[in-house]
Design a protein that fits this description.
Helix content of chain A: over 70%
Largest sheet of chain A: 2 strands, antiparallel
Strand order of the largest sheet of chain B: 1-2
Number of strands of chain A: 2
CATH architecture of chain B: Orthogonal Bundle
Distance between the termini of chain A: 40 Å
Shape of chain B: globular
Radius of gyration of chain A: 20 Å
Structural class of chain B: mainly alpha
Order of helices and strands of chain B: HHHHHHHEHHHHEHHHHH
CATH topology of chain B: ABC transporter involved in vitamin B12 uptake, BtuC
Strand content of chain A: under 5%
CATH architecture of chain A: Orthogonal Bundle
Distance between the termini of chain B: 10 Å
CATH class of chain B: Mainly Alpha
CATH class of chain A: Mainly Alpha
Structural class of chain A: mainly alpha
Oligomer: heterodimer
Strand content of chain B: under 5%
Number of helices of chain A: 13
Largest interface: A-B, 49 and 46 residues
Order of helices and strands of chain A: HHHHHHEEHHHHHHH
Number of domains of chain B: 1
Largest sheet of chain B: 2 strands, antiparallel
CATH topology of chain A: ABC transporter involved in vitamin B12 uptake, BtuC
Number of strands of chain B: 2
Chain lengths: 338, 335
């Protein structure tokens, strides 16, 4: 066992994970434990968005530029569901509803996100796939670019450019962990991300549909041959990936008020994670979420806000030079070539 | 073949193309286009047209979407502007310095990503663009950040018309360079890589080499256009590097027809003017023009991948009428 552990420590994955943990510990001893707490909260949500993106890359081979917009849809739905509930609560208080209202908003966001994802697959990707499979990666990427433009400006056109945010989901005193005050919203966001990731994991490993999705990601033709309904799986995968992003958006509404380009940062971070860990690597995306969150927190802490676009790019350049298949490697359809 | 036809053939132009350029040249004197604000629209359309040619040179031939196109264009512009502001270099030399640095940046980005799948280059160029925009915003001591860097203008005139001719000339030069390259032996290699990578490699083409060559040239041209942008508008803000600008050029290039070079340029003028009309006419509906962009891009991608160029080539160019055929295809097609 120790032999295997040492070998793991010397692999790229081991080195990065250990270095991340060391960095996190060192930074918290320097500036205080809130660094670890902040990392954990941002990381969970980043991981949700990145897992969705990795899923689309792995299963459908779609390099999605529109993924941040499902995050935006999540914030928007949560805002329009939660605000009326909140106003209703102001006039006639009810402790049960106060406890459940945020959950209703988040579930509504998840449902709408899934519906939007399924619609996208049916209306945009399916016609494209029927037409031609040639240069699929680039063409589908361009489709998502067009879709992102439509969704961002559709938001602007229908809902306006102002910030649609809420103060908090849950009322109550902040919780204290390791001498750090954490608002209930943040704590809940972290717990929710863990629950969703766990549920996603169980779903992918233990259910028939999850197995079918993994089969499609490994070999589409083979999956067809053993009788998997490919179209249904593709629609379902898209809905699942988009729903994860919408959940992340909805549960972070107190941090990111809804406005047209709110998804851009989530998109950028998700892409950064996915390239860092290897295209389509889902476990990698999970770990990468936390690593990138730490990087972001440290950048803002030590260099200043606004540099969080520069530092990740520099790091990606290093990764591309030394290990283009990503830290954890990519098993999806080769990194080289088309 | 008379000398005129031979010249046209060498320049990859058709009589129709020459007529189009002539129309564009007299346009600022024809009402209603002889108003200053419409000339400004024409200039921005010509800039997009030139950008679409340089963009299509990469996207249409080696099938790599340069998603940081405007960031690299802005990088060229900033280089030229900073040289002019801090060192007093005349913009006429500065724009070429800008082009060279933009080309160098493109070369480095390409060197890093073009040996990998095409999507890496697209995403990496996007990241580089975001990082450049962040740097331009944050390095206030050099770029004055979001306040904008005041730049000396290329010409000492208040009129827009000389600038219009300058950008038309730049557009023509961009087209001539790109079309010259794609009709040469190198261009065949580009097309082979864009169509089938494995077949190209089997035929002894080194994909990485040609892709980097193509990418660098495209970025150099972008840098040149950036220099024009910087010294025409007289003010440079980090907004020039925004992804939405790249999307604009991308949409025009794809709607015009990928792999045709001229398609994007031809479609840019009516398209940009129409979009400006939509934007200024329906200002109570913000973002509508961009929604139209996105919709058109998606529809063209799914249902008519060749865009305007394929439509023109199949439905208009194939005419039996000899005079019209000469007009549309030049002398070469007749023989």
């Amino acid at each position: 066992m120790s032999d295997r552990f040492i070998r793991w420590c010397r692999s790229a994955a081991g080195i990065t994970i250990l270095a991340t943990i060391l960095l996190a510990v060192a930074a918290s001893m320097d500036r205080g434990p809130y660094i670890i707490v902040n990392t954990a909260i941002t990381g969970g949500m980043l991981a949700l968005v990145a897992i969705g993106l990795a899923l689309l890359l792995g299963v459908m081979n779609v390099a999605s530029f529109v993924h941040g917009e499902y995050f935006m849809i999540g914030t928007l739905v949560a805002y329009y569901v939660f605000t009326p509930l909140h106003n209703f609560l102001n006039t006639n208080p009810s402790p049960t509803l106060a406890l459940v209202a945020p959950l209703i908003a988040i579930v509504a966001a998840a449902v709408v996100g899934a519906a939007a994802g399924a619609l996208t697959e049916i209306m945009v990707f399916a016609p494209m796939r029927r037409r031609s499979r040639e240069n699929w990666v680039m063409n589908s990427f361009l489709l998502t670019v067009g879709l992102a433009v439509i969704l961002i400006n559709g938001h602007l056109l229908i809902f306006g450019a102002d910030f649609k945010g809420i103060v908090r989901y849950w009322v109550g005193a902040p919780v204290t962990i390791m001498d750090v005050f954490i608002s209930r919203d943040r704590l809940f966001a972290f717990l929710l991300s863990l629950i969703v990731i766990l549920a996603f994991w169980v779903f992918m490993k233990a259910t028939r549909t999850g197995r079918a999705i993994r089969a499609v990601s490994q070999d589409e033709t083979g999956a067809l041959m053993v009788g998997i309904n490919l179209n249904a799986i593709l629609i379902f995968t898209m809905a699942l990936g988009c729903s994860l992003a919408a959940v992340a958006g909805a549960s972070l509404l107190f941090l990111y008020p809804s406005y047209p380009t709110v998804g851009l940062e989530a998109l950028y971070m998700a892409w950064f994670i996915v390239i860092l860990v290897g295209l389509g690597n889902i476990i990698g995306a999970l770990i990468g979420g936390f690593m990138v969150a730490l990087l972001k927190v440290l950048t803002v802490e030590y260099i200043g806000a606004g540099w969080d676009f520069v530092v990740p790019t520099a790091l990606i350049i290093l990764v591309l030079i030394f290990k283009p298949s990503g830290i954890f490697g990519s098993e999806v359809r080769g990194v080289l070539d088309q | 073949m008379n000398p005129f036809d031979r010249l046209l053939k060498q320049l990859n132009l058709t009589p129709a193309g020459v007529l189009g350029l002539a129309v564009l040249a007299v346009l600022p004197f024809v009402p209603p286009f002889n108003q200053e604000y419409l000339v400004r629209w024409l200039i921005s359309a010509a800039l997009i047209a030139a950008g679409a040619i340089a963009f299509d040179f990469t996207a249409g031939y080696i099938n790599i979407v340069n998603f940081g196109f405007y960031a690299i264009l802005g990088f060229g512009g900033y280089t030229s502007a900073i040289l002019a502001v801090n060192f007093g270099l005349t913009p006429w030399i500065g724009v070429f310095c800008g082009a060279v640095t933009a080309g160098l940046l493109g070369f480095l980005t390409g060197l890093l990503t073009l040996r990998l799948r095409g999507i890496f280059a697209a995403v990496m160029a996007w990241f580089v663009g975001l990082a450049l925009m962040g740097l331009a915003t944050k390095m206030v001591w050099l770029t004055r950040g979001p306040l904008g860097l005041r730049t000396p203008r290329l010409l000492e005139t208040a009129s827009n018309i000389p600038y219009y001719y300058l950008i038309l000339l730049l557009m023509l030069v961009t087209y001539l360079i790109c079309s010259r390259v794609v009709t040469s032996k190198v261009g065949i290699a580009f097309k082979a890589i864009g169509q089938n990578m494995d077949a190209a490699r089997t035929s002894g083409i080194n994909p990485t080499y040609y892709r980097i060559l193509n990418f660098t040239l495209s970025c150099t041209l972008a840098g040149l256009l950036g220099g024009f942008y910087a010294h025409y508008y007289g003010i440079l803000t980090p907004d020039i590097m925004h992804t939405s600008k790249t999307v604009e050029v991308l949409a025009v290039a794809y709607i015009g027809g990928r792999g045709s070079l001229w398609g994007g340029a031809a479609i840019a003028f009516p398209f940009i003017l129409a979009m400006e009309l939509v934007r200024s006419g329906l200002s109570n509906l913000p973002g509508l023009n961009l929604i139209l962009y996105g919709l058109l891009l998606i529809l063209v991608m799914i249902y008519y991948p060749g865009g305007f160029a394929v439509f023109f080539n199949t439905h208009v160019r194939n005419t039996k009428n000899r005079a019209l055929n000469y007009f549309l295809n030049g002398a070469a097609a007749r023989t």
